[in-house]
């Protein structure tokens, strides 16, 4: 049963990744691609797309860091409340 749960979690995580990937791709495409008269990607479209993706990646990284910091603070507060850690020194 544990193997099924792990596999199920992996499938769910992969579906979430694909959904996020598709959303970012669509957003960057809609913001950056303007000229449909040629098959070639123009340099400004390519540059815009790269900037869009970099912005998304940086935002995701920053949110992840803040989320981790928040959980560390919450865990420390719970541990201090339970008497496992000394409280903050002033």
UniProtKB/TrEMBL annotation:
UniProt domain Tim10-like: residue ranges: 9-69
One GO cellular component term: mitochondrial inner membrane
Keywords recorded for this protein, A-Z: Chaperone, Disulfide bond, Membrane, Metal-binding, Mitochondrion, Mitochondrion inner membrane, Protein transport, Translocation, Transport, Zinc
GO biological process, one term: protein transport
Domain comment as written in the entry: The twin CX3C motif contains 4 conserved Cys residues that form 2 disulfide bonds in the mitochondrial intermembrane space.
Known role: Mitochondrial intermembrane chaperone that participates in the import and insertion of some multi-pass transmembrane proteins into the mitochondrial inner membrane. Also required for the transfer of beta-barrel precursors from the TOM complex to the sorting and assembly machinery (SAM complex) of the outer membrane. Acts as a chaperone-like protein that protects the hydrophobic precursors from aggregation and guide them through the mitochondrial intermembrane space. Mitochondrial intermembrane chaperone that participates in the import and insertion of multi-pass transmembrane proteins into the mitochondrial inner membrane. May also be required for the transfer of beta-barrel precursors from the TOM complex to the sorting and assembly machinery (SAM complex) of the outer membrane. Acts as a chaperone-like protein that protects the hydrophobic precursors from aggregation and guide them through the mitochondrial intermembrane space.
Name by which UniProt lists this protein: Mitochondrial import inner membrane translocase subunit
Provenance organism: Pogonophryne albipinna
